[in-house]
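User: Good morning. I'm curious how magnesium ion would be positioned relative to this chain. Could you predict the structure with it bound?
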Amino acid sequence: MSGLTKNIFGAIITLLLIAFVFSLFYTEQKPTTVFSLDQLASKINSGEVAKITVSGNDLTIQLKDGPQATSKKETEVGLSETLKNYGVNPLALQKVNLEIKEESGFRYWASILIPSLLPLLIIGVFLWLMFRQARTGMSQAFTFGKANIKLFTQFKDRITFEDVAGLKEAKEELVEVVDFLKNPKKYLEIGARIPRGILLYGSTGTGKTLLARSVAGESNVPFFHISGSEFVEMFVGIGASRVRDLFRTAKKAAPCIVFIDEIDAVGRERGAGLGGGHDEREQTLNQILVEMDGFDRETQVIVIAATNRPDILDSALLRPGRFDRRIILDLPNINDREAILKIHSREKILNRDINLRQVAERTPGFSGADLANLLNEAAILAARKNRKEVIQQNIFDSIEKVLLGPERRSRVLSVKEKEITAYHEAGHALVATSIKNADPVHKVSIIARGRTGGYTLKLPIEETYLRTKSQFMADLAVLLGGYISERIIFGDISTGGSNDLQIASDLARKLVTKFGMSEKIGPITYGKTEELVFLGREIATEKNYSEKVAGEIDKEVRAIIEKARDLAKKIITSRNRVLKAIAKKLIEKETLEREEFDTLIKSFKLKPISV
Ligand code: ADP
Ligand code: MG
Ligand code: ZN
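Assistant: Good morning! Here's the predicted structure, ligand included:
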């Protein structure tokens, strides 16, 4: 209930109460005849009155022949006195049965107090309501300093390691932690120091939060969950006091686990950054460090933190005794992807012929979250097509949707645009199939998607964490293939390829300044990229080299691009017939799947060119 409705509610209740109290007094009075004292006196004198009951100033008169009547006496004077003043015969009065009723406490006092106190009472009630309102506001302000920790133990959807696919090393590490919390004695007796902090890192969607939750499910100890951003709110000083509160609660509940998600929100490198408010963050971070240092050997509180930006974490967090265990969560490999798909297909109705392995093959680079999303998209697609179960094609169609955003069929290409796009994509595809080291083409399409015009989807055959220089050169040539093709066929260039050129230039510059892949420049990296906390992105690259070196770098970048361009040019001019065949087929069918594309290429019996 909001404060306002509460107030109105309170006011209504009060009014109802007042009405009730009033009704108590008024309904008791039966409508009876009212005598003036004068009348009463004459009735007494004529002997009609049997009994008078006096209650305060009220007189209830019982007449001999039945009916009752009421009257009032004067306030200060006794009844007999009053009646005497009205000329009642004392003898006649003696015959009347007089009963003096002590005015009953409540009614008496109420009749005196309520009229005078009622206004005060109403004012009092309103004041009380207002105070209460203010007090809740105040106590809200006080709880700002309390950590908004959530206890995970009573979670309905308990998650265990079973629900997390892959991540084998991470799980092993965490199993140890769980075991420690279950039998701390075993470790303490042998003199082992308990790990205090475990830092999970990996890119978004790799399952950090999921894994931490599964630890909660496995260990059966209290699990406190807070997100880094919750430490820092509007008021200065809140963060640190929340940290204190969190650890106080945790120590009371030990053995237990504290999970700080997205710790980079508070744990950024101190003393960096432009924006205001990072003082607050520093205080919060300092408090975390202080609290973790304050654990003694026996404290059975384990702090797990997660981040996708380990590079920007303050180095103090990583020192021994703090987050000294670090677990890296990699993007899933093909087996893991299959396992993740299996887990997420549990609640979905899939066709019997679905082959999740094939889906896994087509989704390198997808994170766990992407895969979960993929299956969901597939289910939505199937439902939209009024299917009762999800078929393989629904999943395949969703892969690109997850990759590139929804298909924009509504964007109609003019005939000319379609031709240009077809030759552009054919250029990419031809160069990609021609070069030995390039990734094979999985799909070519001139249907616009997301922000790209058409696209050529090429995927590595196997996952590679390392790429060689010749692979990069192949990538560059493929990137430039679209641009070259347009130039050769139309003698003109459209804006469609500018994104390719941008990517190519960036890649070439990286080869020279980061990967040391240029002969002339040699194995030195240039430029220190500094993270500006305020914007949270790489925006400033400090130039730590001279103008002369800068010139050389530019020259090398240009040389690399030119080499790639020449390669692409050579392929496209010498294999012009193939280019035209691909483009024609694209204009006709708009999308070529891998099999169609391969059959088309095979008929030309091309020899792979090595870089
Ligand atoms: P992060 O915290 O690393 O950004 P999450 O833990 O929030 O990622 O993962 C998002 C979702 O992706 C999870 O809820 C889960 O559905 C799915 N997911 C990610 N990794 C896995 C995995 N290894 N096994 C099963 N599901 C996963
Ligand atoms: Mg997360
Ligand atoms: Zn392109």
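Residues 147 and 456 are 50 Å apart (CA to CA). DSSP finds 22 helices and 16 strands in the chain.
Let me know if you'd like a different ligand tried.
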